């Protein structure tokens, strides 16, 4: 239950304890770095608040009344407990400043987070330990839930819209590309693949909840109509790396981030197939719970790195 209005604040109790210890308001005022007049006024306010006279003031000093001695005994325990609370909060803040619980979608975790963390480590002042980072790489829906339940301090997700109920900031743009192996019929055909063809083709895809999969489905529905049926997947995998390897093995086409396939495209192990009229650009966002601005610490520092580098 809430405390009554008769409970003094910690600063007033500390001042009273020092008066009891030194025997003088003036001496206690010097300990607290205030004038004797200010200390006397604060103690008078304490007496009004508790509704008791706690000091007998005289020309040779101040003596505790019976009520004052009782209050000092209680105040000593309260101030001691407040000191423990202060030490505990400081310890938690130190722990928080040295640890970052990070969650990121697979694309961001695999292709962007490592370079962001390297940049964060590079800006750590000399003689200071960099933060310990615990990274959970999962799909965008799971990242959102980890952040929403405070199991992660900062998350990075993919998708056309920011998750409701969380603060967010765009940090990069990402382009999705349709890829096939060199021997696939789409690899060398002159006529481009249409959105309708793509929608009717079983693809190798990520699992439900993936930002990559949702971005593709949203783009197809926007181009063809929300009720357009999409072909059942040829296969589902939990990581973009597995999808890419399945495409290279000839298990079907896939739509993946160009971050995930840029090396394979450059080496000729995969071929990009244009799909005119199908916008496949998406936003990559940082998300967090709580205040509009992250508190000072590694989460805010990493967000600044990500926004500055833009991938």
How would you sum up this structure in a few lines?
The protein is an alpha/beta fold and about 300 residues long.
Write up this protein.
With 311 residues, this protein is α/β, with parallel strands linked by helices. The protein has 12 helices and 11 strands. Strand 7 (204-206), helix 9 and strand 8 form a beta-alpha-beta unit. 46% of the residues lie in helices and 20% in strands. It has 3 domains: 10-95, Orthogonal Bundle (Arc Repressor Mutant, subunit A); 97-172 and 284-309, Periplasmic binding protein-like II (D-Maltodextrin-Binding Protein, domain 2, 3-Layer(aba) Sandwich), CATH 3.40.190.10; 173-283, D-Maltodextrin-Binding Protein, domain 2.
Overall shape: it is rod-shaped
Biggest sheet overview: 7 strands, mixed
Compute the average pLDDT: 89
CATH topology name of the largest domain, in short, is D-Maltodextrin-Binding Protein, domain 2
- Tally the helices: what do you get? 12
> Can you identify the CATH class of the largest domain?
Alpha Beta
How many β strands by DSSP? Answer: 11
Broad structural category? alpha/beta
Strand content: 15-25%
* Structural domain tally: 3
Radius of gyration: 32 Å
Note the topology.
Elements: H1 10-22, H2 25-32, H3 36-50, E1 55-58, E2 61-64, H4 66-97, E3 99-105, H5 106-111, H6 113-122, E4 132-138, H7 140-148, E5 154-159, E6 167-180, H8 195-200, E7 204-206, H9 211-224, E8 235-237, H10 240-248, E9 254-257, H11 258-267, E10 271-273, E11 281-288, H12 298-309
Parallel strand pairs: 3-4, 3-5, 7-8
Antiparallel strand pairs: 1-2, 5-11, 6-9, 6-10, 6-11
Helix pairs in contact: 1-2, 1-3, 1-4, 2-3, 6-12
